Amino acid sequence: MSTKPILIDCRYVFPKYAAAYLIVEKKRALFVENNTSHAVLILLDELAKAGLKPTQVEYLIVTHAHLDHAGGSSALIQACPNATLLAHPRAAKHLIDPSKLIQGARQVYGDQVFEELYGQIDPIPANRVREIQDGEEIEFGSRLLRFFYTRGHAKHHFCVFDSRANGVFTGDSFGIAYPALQRKGLFIFPSTSPVDFEPNEARISIQKIMDSGAERAYLTHFGEVGEMSQAAGQLLGHLDFHEKLLDRVVSSNLDDKEKLSFCQKELNSYFHEKLSLIGLGSDSLLWDILRPDIELNAAGLVYASQKRKTA
Q1: With contact defined as beta carbons under 8 Å apart, do 145 and 160 qualify?
Q2: How far apart are CA 134 and CA 124, in angstroms?
Q3: CB 33 within 8 A of CB 171
Q4: Of 56, 61, 201, 273, which sees the most CB atoms within 10 A?
Q5: 252 with 266: CB under 8 angstroms?
Q6: What pTM was estimated for this model as a whole?
Q7: How far is CA 24 from CA 29, 51, 230, 244, in A?
Q8: How confident is the model over 207-252, as pLDDT tens digits?
Q9: Contacts of 186 (CB under 8 A, 6+ apart)
Q10: At residue 1, does pLDDT exceed 70?
């Protein structure tokens, strides 16, 4: 039996964009990240390939409540009758009562796009949800799973250290590394999407992940990263740029629409320069992949600037 978790491409938005992971311990199983209701059949198919049934799934773990990580939780927990959802206390509340998550996403995307991306999201019974505390540990077969809080991307975010794999499931706390961007070596960048981006907390989270001693990170976006020190260095450098851009936005006299346009333009130029340095700057396909994250990162910086001005 492999020590590594099974990587599952949830086929969210486009291939190799969002992952879930399956851990099998003899006749027991758990999922890390539940993606959306549209991915549940994919997750259950991987479970069947591993020779297990939905009744043998014990835990569903979500690193945070953003819908590309947790939107499928209600559908998956209905399909796995013996499973318990493990979540940060703040995330647990939103999954037990997802009305605010749904309302916010519908406002951003509109009803049609929301349905296409996320499908049905139902409340999860409170007795099937377990709130996980910072530093809590759970034995799962030959593995010890240790949970630790990692703010910066979201206040309700945690990471999970897997002792047997010597790896950390990092959610969005250790950046994004799409396979298409790795052709010239590691290229990883942070997510500063709304609504909780805090540069200092993001740096602290990276340090916590490094301090775990893990040899690899299991990213939701996307897959395994083994060059931990190199990845941390890139992420910290990118965070420096994002924070300086945030400072410029805070000190500007631009309105919110102008701020968003300014941030998108600056981030486009920044990433074009970085990709050009490794010979990928002219690849239009990569820009199709990067565009949604640049737009989300820009929106997160604008939101962070609003919070700073009202603080």
Answers
A1: yes
A2: 22
A3: yes
A4: 61
A5: no
A6: 0.96
A7: 5, 10, 30, 43
A8: 999 999 999 999 999 999 999 999 999 999 999 999 999 999 999 9
A9: 177, 225, 227, 230, 231, 234
A10: no
| Cα 176 from Cα 223, distance rounded (Å) | 9
Q: Rounded CA gap, 6 and 304, in Å?
A: 36
SS3 letters across the chain: CCCCCEEEECCCCCCCCCEEEEEEECCEEEEECCCCHHHHHHHHHHHHHCCCCHHHEEEEECCCCCHHHHCCHHHHHHHCCCCEEEECHHHHHHHHCCHHHHHHHHHHHCHHHHHHHHCCCCCCCHHHEEECCCCCEEEECCEEEEEEECCCCCCCCEEEEECCCCEEEEECCCCECCHHHCECECCCECCCCCCCCCHHHHHHHHHHHHHCCCCEEEECCCEEECCHHHHHHHHHHHHHHHHHHHHHHHHCCCCHHHHHHHHHHHHHHHHHHHHHHCCCCCCHHHHHHHHHHHHHHHHHHHHHHHHHHHC
Name the class of domain 6-227.
alpha beta
Distance CA 74, CA 71 (A): 7
Compute the distance between CA of residue 113 and CA of residue 227 in angstroms, rounded to an integer.
36
Show me where the domains of the chain are located.
Answer: 6-227, 230-310
Which residue type occupies 206? I
What is the β-pairing status of strands 57-61 and 28-32?
parallel
257-260: long-range contacts at Cβ-Cβ below 8 A with a sequence spacing of 24 or more?
259/301, 259/302, 259/305, 260/298, 260/299, 260/302
265-295, pLDDT tens digit by residue?
999 999 999 999 999 888 888 888 999 999 9
Indicate if the pLDDT at residue 185 is higher than 70.
Answer: yes
Contact 250, 309 (CB under 8 A): yes
